[in-house]
Amino acid sequence: MKVRQLLIVIAxxxxxxxxxxxxxxxxxxxxxxxxxxxxxxxxxxPRPSLHEEKMREYLTSFAQARGLRCQDAGGNIIIxxxxxxGMEQVPTVVLQTHMDxxxxxxxxxxxxxxxxxxxxxxVGGYIQSKGNKTSLGxxxxxGVAIVLAILDSKEVRHGPLECLFTWNxxxxxxxxxxxxxxxxxxxxxxxxxSEEDGYLLVGTAGSVSVNAGWMYTPEVAPTGYAPFQLRxxxxxxGHSGVKINDGGANANKLIADFLAEERIAxxxxxxxxxxxxxxxxxxxxSVVLVPIDEISNFTQDFDNFMAVAKAxxxxxxxxxxxxxxxxxxxxxxxxxxxxACLIEGLSKSPQGVIEWSAVVEGIFELSNNIGIVVTxxxxxxxxxxPRGFNMPGLERVASDIAGAFPGAEITMTxxxxxxxxxxxxxxxxxxxxxxxxxxxxxxGLFIVGGGVEASMFSVTYPDMxxxxxxxxxxxxxxxxxxxxxxxxxxxxxxxxxxxxxxxKLK
Length: 506
Ligand SMILES: [Zn+2]
Hints:
Elements: H1 2-15, H2 33-43, H3 53-65, E1 70-73, E2 76-81, E3 93-98, E4 120-123, E5 126-129, H4 138-152, E6 161-166, H5 174-178, E7 188-191, E8 199-204, E9 206-215, E10 219-220, E11 225-233, E12 238-239, H6 251-261, E13 267-273, E14 279-280, E15 284-291, H7 295-312, E16 321-326, E17 332-333, H8 336-348, E18 352-356, E19 364-368, E20 370-375, E21 379-384, E22 387-388, H9 391-403, E23 409-416, H10 426-438, E24 444-448, H11 453-460, E25 465-468, E26 473-474, E27 482-484, H12 485-500
Parallel strand pairs: 3-6, 3-7, 7-25, 8-24
Antiparallel strand pairs: 1-2, 2-6, 4-5, 5-27, 9-21, 9-22, 9-23, 10-17, 11-15, 11-16, 12-14, 13-15, 18-19, 19-22, 20-21, 26-27
Helix pairs in contact: 2-4, 6-8
The chain binds zinc ion.
The site of zinc ion (ZN) has 5 residues, from α4.
């Protein structure tokens, strides 16, 4: 490494005059001070998701004060900057970040996030909110600050820039969804909203919500049956786009599989588990009516079934608890056809990883999570969220799930397309080369199961190549949120090289 740098430095003197011929351009070592001062400035601007008006004003006056062209595109702000001299021929680059932040406060700390900004302090190599009283807004304020420092600088070398600041990334990606095709001219997007330095996010899974429902008239509970409550709880759970790879159990699935296999003719009274579709269900409860003369067999079957499940998931779900106990009487139950459709549908639905990625080890290609099961007085409904890194596979899984509930009312909502990794694409190859040119360790590549804005841009701008990277942010969206200062430096320098060496990107 040293030798090569040395070579470049020597060559630099000679190169000043001749970098037009495609040899290694000289990247000026611009200080990152401006990044930190802009971050402080941004944090003084109140910007909770869906309340980005003050941030729009701030960005617009930032642009006007510097004579930069600026437009509002579907509520997003785009600031344009011309190429620095000698860089007019390199491709236009889109620098993309989001304006909003998740605002949370410590218990008992009162603050009006609509009118008051974030106070920050530096503690042990990290920037955090003062006294950890609020979230910090480094997600994504530090990315915004890096872009503003580039727009403000007279030293940073870059080609034509389109700097896109989106709104409401945190709760629905409304800004990304509102961006029309044809607005952006760049074919390369650098999203600076990832939270782990030294890694490139190169793909995300798509997802869809498959919803099934059934209306019924409750039936009077038959005599000769005793009501039993089945409960599974204490599972690890977690984000179904991430933790699904760990192979933990889902409480809805365990109870449904038990009831589907059970040979004793029970009647279903209720089944409830989970409140958000993108979380692996940690607990679920079902009430069933069991023929009185079969109670001990039934509870034995339950214990046997759950003992096998416990053994299967012992590495992940250490605190799994499974109980079946008698409860006080119930007056009604769910008609058999509605109950059968629910239980068979859930037991035929896949849970967890369906297929592993052939591209990245240890992550799913296709997965499903049975997020929500609810039974009410006169209906039941289910929300499942399959995810996939390829659309045909995702669609297949979604229609298989729908097919598992014959006779139920089916809808499919909240569709996010997968952003399929193209690790041989010119932008990723370039980004890896540039990083390797600056570090001893190669940059890591990762894909995530959750959705990011890039997955929306890849639909509206199918020819756009996108990478996501960013400084290390810990505990985002919490009062413990903090950003590692040294990694901000790294990302700043990396961005200067990505922009400055652009003549190499073909
Ligand atoms: Zn973010």
